[in-house]
Amino acid sequence: MSALTDDTLPVTPRAMRDEMLMFAAMAVLLGVVPLTGIYPFFVMQALCFALLACAFNLLIGYGGLLSFGHAMFLGTAGYCSAHALKVWGVTPELGIVIGTAGAAALSVVTGFISIRRQGIYFAMITLALSQLLYFIYLQAPFTHGEDGIQGIPQGYLFGIFNLSKPTVLYYVVLAGFLGGFLLIYRTINSPFGEVLKAIRENEPRAISLGYKTDQYKLLAFILSGTIAGFAGSLKVFVAQNASLTDVHWTMSGEIVLMTLVGGLGTVFGPVVGAFVIIAMQQYLAGFGQWVTVIQGVIFVACVLTFRRGIIGEIAHYFRRSL
Amino acid sequence: MQALYAQLLVGLINGSFYALLSLGLAVIFGMLNIINFAHGALYMMGAFCAYFLLNIAGIGYWPALIIAPIAVGIFGMILERTMLQWLAGLDHLYGLLLTFGLALIIQGVFQNYFGSSGLPYAIPSELQGGMNLGFMFLPIYRGWVVVFSLVVCLATWFLIEKTRLGANLRAATENPTLVRAFGINVPRMITLTYGLGVGLAALAGVLSAPINQVRPLMGADLIIVVFAVVVIGGMGSIMGSIITGFALGVIEGLTKYFYPEASNTVVFVLMVLVLLLKPAGLTGRAA
Fold first, then answer.
1. CB-based contacts of B109, cutoff 8 Å, min separation 6
2. What is the pLDDT of residues A258-294, one digit of tens each?
3. Pick from A140, A110, A105: which is nearest to A252 by CA?
4. A253: closest chain B residue by CA
5. Which of A64, B112, B228, B281 could bond to A128 as cystine, CB 3.0-4.6 Å?
6. d(CA A225, CA A74)
7. Could you state, in order of their start, the residue ranges of all structural domains in chain B?
8. What pLDDT, in 10s, does the model give residues B210-220?
9. Dist CA B189 CA B195 (whole Å)
């Protein structure tokens, strides 16, 4: 597993300060977006995917576990939230809770199954499980199959914030993103996160030191799946639909791509990667299938020449940990 | 009963494809330590290669059965020489990511030119028609696919487990440095192994062209099922891959008859059961 982390730097007060400064800069930058006239829906969508990619990165970057099925949490949370909001008519906050809880429950089950194997098998198992779920959602009546759940009401969050106003919705999504990001950041720098990194570097040694590595991996998987689900629930309010594309393996591939482009195992990389990939999809939407080809080319180019990703390369250049 | 036998036959055919593909994945993983995500795309290229040979050059099924695997195999060897070989020594995950990218590129290019609909490929005249076996009607082509796949699988098993070349190959899997010291060109062997695995996938593609039509995404969903097959059987043994492939095909066929709603998912459900009951996989040697 060493190749993933050939230049991990120890956590120093300076690194913490750098990361705090970066976080503040990111929060301010994202906070002023509605004042700049940038299309807010683009940024909101990117924020949901950024949180999703951060959750994915928690597993691969700090636990060494490549999940090729993270779309299942996005899609499951989306379907749960959408169904609760539209059919049961619950309030938005309850809708988010139900969606996140759905993804959490799924991550307990799938995590229990998939951590039974390591490395490459883990990736194949998560992919197969998400495909299993795809077929279930394809046939289940409540998902409305190919049509998906559409026209989801946005409502008032906590009875005050009118989510059908783009600016209000934007700040709600931003708050959700920043909250999720800080939770992941806290996890990475906690004793739990240190044990995860130890498992990534050398699992047999972590076991010999007395750590029950399976429990740590399962907990990381559940945390990652739950946060991914939270991002999926937020996305329901932005897109106002829940559809099969969110559960498909191509979506899992995009999540992997975002994280790879930004930098596996970097704190801010997934965020940058998500914005890059979502922007690319927006601008190249007219090229049809060529977008898939370009994504493939980026995958190949990243793996062959650019394995650290954007943030990883910058951090390496300045000898900092970002 | 007729319908049951028909579904069993369909299951055997799918099982042949699972066996050929998981066999190739296992051989490649053994030598390159890479899970070849592009395997489904290369299977599709095999089918398209047969289609092009017929419609552009007028070359029929029988030559295509030999030409397509060789052509796609050479394409695979070029991929190995130009890209995959640089990943030696890196984490397994990078191989998966690189080949995933390759699969996106190959499938995307074909989708651009051929859309998502299927192109027909006729059954060769020698294999048209069917036989009445008394208890069921057997279309000759389908019987041919099952028998021929089985022969190819067993030949591959023989090549790797029983010949001198295979012995070198297995030795290089265990300890490449030592085998190189004996004067065996291991990098060339790795390239040829990748070509062999890819060629098997392309062969499966040619075999499936008359049955499943030729589509750019024909391999995309198949490869995920094959991954589940590989998780169930483990990649430690060649014979294990063959048996698991055929067995899962048959089970899928039976499911189509008894409970069609679950036929898409049965292999994945079995994978979950195997992981819960026997986490190391059926052959028990997997990591």
1. A293
2. 999 999 989 999 999 999 999 998 888 888 778 889 9
3. A110
4. B100
5. B228
6. 9
7. 2-219
8. 998 899 999 99
9. 10
